[in-house]
Amino acid sequence: MNPVEIEEAVSNLALEPFDRSEFPFQFLAAFDNKDTTIRLLKSGKSNASDVPNGVLQRNNIHIATCDVGEVDATLNALRASPKTAAAKAKFILATDGESFQAEDLTGGGTVACAYAEFPDHFGFFLPLAGITTVEQIKESSFDVKATGRLNRLYVQLLKENPDWAAAERQHDMNHFMARLIFCFFAEDTDIFFGERLFTGAVEQWSARDSSDTHTIIGEIFRAMDTKSVDRDAAGLPRYAMKFPYVNGQLFSGSTDVPQFSKVARSYLLHIGSLNWKKINPDIFGSMIQAVTDDAERGSLGMHYTSVPNILKVLNPLFLDDLREKLEEAGDNARKLLNLRNRLARIRVFDPACGSGNFLVIAYKEMRQIEAEINRRRSEPDRRSDIPLTNFRGIELRSFPAEIARLALIIAEYQCDVLYRGQKDAVADFLPLGAENWITCGNALRLDWLSICPPTGKGVKVSSNDLFQTALDQAEIDFENEGGETYICGNPPYKGARKQEPSEKSDMASVWRRYPRVTKSLDYVSGWVAKLLEYMNWCPNAVGAFVVTNSICQGQQASDLWPIVFSEDVDIVFAHRAFPWRNLAANNAVVSVAIVGLSKRSNHIDPAIYDNDKRIRCSAISPYLLPNSRDLVKTSTVPISEQTPMLFGNMVRDGGHLLLSREQYESVSNDENIRPFLRRYVGADEMINGKVRYCLWIDDKDKERAMLSPFIAERLKLVAQSRLESPAKSTQDFANRPHRFVQLAGYAKASSICIPQVSSEKRNYIPIDYFSADAIITAPNFSIYDGSIWNFAILASRLHVVWAKTVCGQLETRLRYSNTLGWNTFPVPKLTDNSKADLARCAENILLARQAHFPATIADLYEPEGMPEDLRRAHKANDEVLERIYIGRRFRNDTERLEKLFDLYTKMTIKPGTQKKAVAST
User: Fold this and answer.
1) Euclidean distance between CA atoms 800 and 890, whole angstroms
2) Cα–Cα distance between 536 and 569 in angstroms, integer?
3) Which residues contact 105 (CB under 8 A, 6 or more apart)?
4) Each residue of 485-510: pLDDT tens digit?
5) What is the Cα–Cα distance from 438 to 403, expressed in whole angstroms?
6) Structure pTM?
7) Judging by DSSP bridges, how do beta strands 485-489 and 542-548 pair with one another?
8) Three-state SS at 566
């Protein structure tokens, strides 16, 4: 269940008669507990509650119902219960059907309300459904509730009007929904004169059988597009005359309205009964865009970019500076006036604006600063000088673009009410301006300069229609003499291998000057390319994007950032990698970073943000490290004294050189076969303990091996499989079926296996040590017959931090590389004693693993389930290795990376060339 479905289930529960015995189970069911779970709790098999009428769900919640007036005492009993603590319950809840109280035992929050109002707090309990929540959703359920109700209406209308679901009418349907949202908001906020003006008119004037509901709504829409002086001639019905002229082209054009059934009409009236004063445009817009997207509707209510994450972009981009200037101005009227004038000329441009979150938050934060200026200047009722048209965006999809405009209109009105009062806000709100400041189109194909032009230029892409953009229309009156431009946003995430043909074409277009990189870079880098182009014309502009962390790692970092630096653009601020998630349970988490970019000529002092701690520095590297612009370059040999690491052997055999454990046991006693059997080791075998074997036949032993009918038959099948391969390189090996296609070698004594791809959640890279008979296979890596101290380095925290930074990721998983991760890893000169100490640490790690046989590496390195003795062995290894570097343990990963990069620079840059290399990177 998604949050919208949960909110609906909880609301329905509150409407039912209160049943003391059933309520705990009904409550758990509303939060997506399975029927089997409920049955076990009802039977008492999994209910360990020691409180009368209590139900205790382990690791979740302890609920109890009680007599009227006993809620306080019952909640105290739940809190004091030993079973609550023993079962690690996250919540306690008590209710008597009249009052309702709950407590979050982990976060410390509480709920106390009338029973009928507990659905308003459903967000408080979303962790019960495995959904990670944000504070804004906990505090108000309105946006989720409104989204759910609108979704039901939308789906019902499409069901009853299938022609409106066609592609050619999608815009009409989206426009209709935007009009409805405006009407619901306007009737609850005094924009419309009269209580429930819109909903009431539909309820009173349309037939109960809904036969004319579409006509009534259409006439109301027509009225809102008709000026007062034209109304008599327009022949509007009496009920429509009460509605004001809205303008803004919101109600212009077709007044077609889809046909309503009685069900759809009741849905509309129900939506109108909600309190739309509570709408939060920076949350609601993100959620509502899923209503009209079939692919996204299943995650309804989960699409939300949190305000704290948005402010991670906007604060260092320009808001922090504005607040500092406000602090410096104090009560100085002249300085305050200058700052207010500066605010009025700032443009914020989001070229991937979606439903307008970044623009709405930027607008609201700037209005807050302006309001404080007005307060200090004794002008609290002054009309805002900050125009909405300074908040410009591009969005590919039409409905989010419409919602972005609507969200900004609502944000402006709410700010006017907050800072100037309801009366002045209403007086100035209508009619809306007709300018269009959000463009619907492909941001990688449109000219950003024509949408957000250089200082002093007019807008070339504009419209006199709020909801339709014609690219050839005349300029609107939009000048910005002396203003600042800040470009920001959260562009779409698409890895280089997952891009659609159209997206690949976009990338080829924006990177046409650097075609070499188009196939390797994530889609988000296209916005970086457009920003570089924009900055060549507007060098004072500063930009910041939420980007996939992968463009700051591995090969992508090597491809992208030299281009950026060559354009005289630097990273001027950055938030290091953090997870970017929405409200979905078990949803995919993208590892992202935030990078701020500016021309060097702007002389902005760089700063890195790590867990909201600001670190000033002289420069920021592609890996988001301080005081450097250096890149790690691939190396074919180790730069230190560690043993070389090779790519694994590649089989391409159609599976015929491989044997399962059972097949191995059936033939291993055959003297003609046994000499050619080896342990086969890939990532699955090493990490998950899967056992397989392979035939390993040297050229000199081919004839002897063919004496075995079993082997001869296997090789015949290998040859046939290779001949049928579409790859010529594989076909060429059909006449050598006895051997692997690509040979890296095998060990005489021992080998260390390193998987190419492994989980990012592990604290250490999952490596293993094998005897001579193991064949390590591609795409994994191997160190053959190296000293065991190599294992200690690979198994260290120091090395995993380096690898995650310079090797890059596949989705969110670590993608290891021998040429980037191992050969570049800087190791100080090791003494014999140091090597002996590291060898002992490696042996202790292996012994600790062996003590837990048959647990697999996957089992042993589960972050929360790692055995304590193995954890101690790794910590001891980290202690020994890190003391070799600096004589003590590093304080954190940042310090580890700074030391490693400093050492890497010293090892790879010739004396006397370091300063030049940094400047030219």
Assistant:
1) 14
2) 10
3) 79, 84, 89, 90, 91, 92
4) 999 999 988 877 788 899 999 999 99
5) 10
6) 0.80
7) parallel
8) helix
